[in-house]
Amino acid sequence: MDIVFVKYLHILSSTLLFGTGVGTAFYLLFISRQRDPRVVAPVARMVVIADWLFTATTIVFQPLSGLYLAHRMGVALTTPWLYWSLVLFAIAALCWLPVVWLQMKLRDVALAAAASGQQLPLSYDRYMGAWAALGVPALISFLIVFYLMTAKPSFG
């Protein structure tokens, strides 16, 4: 496969991964502050769909395409910038797995509250707190990965 095309897909995939993550987080965070389950529920539903469509596919494609590119370019996995990129990507991915579960819980709680005409319960706030706590290290990890991929520092 043409290495330029794989690089293009790798960059496009990283853009989708990061953009979807930041975009959906923005909408879910700020719509949740409104506390109206009739508004929160459909947004939370779409966030879950977007995460499965875009984040799940790109979180699989990114390491596969990255490892392929490293192999084709002769870059050892022990090269510091690549090694730390892989470690940080793994941290972000491990944060993402429970985040998806939490987003589904947020969606379900909001849908139940909207259907019953009730306000969002305290469980929504607990799920949201855990969601935000996991989102921060994932975001920081991805920002550092972008830097490492761009600068390719020598660490020495």
Notes on the protein architecture:
The protein is mainly α. The protein has one domain. Helix content is 86%, strand content 0%. Helix 1 runs antiparallel to helix 4 and helix 2 packs antiparallel against helix 3.
Furnish the topology, listing elements before pairings.
Blueprint lengths: L2 H30 L4 H37 L6 H37 L5 H30 L5
Summed up, the domain count is: 1
Give the total of beta strands: 0
Main pleated sheet? none
Coarse shape:
elongated
SSE class: mainly alpha
What proportion strand? Answer: under 5%
Individual helix count: 4
Radius of gyration: 18 Å
Topology pattern, helix = H, strand = E: HHHH
- Terminal CA distance reads 34 Å
Q: What is the residue-averaged pLDDT?
A: 96
Helix content: over 70%
Low-confidence stretches: none
Any key phrases for this structure?
elongated; 156 residues; mainly alpha; 86% helix
In short:
The protein has helices at residues 3-32, 37-73, 80-116, 122-151.
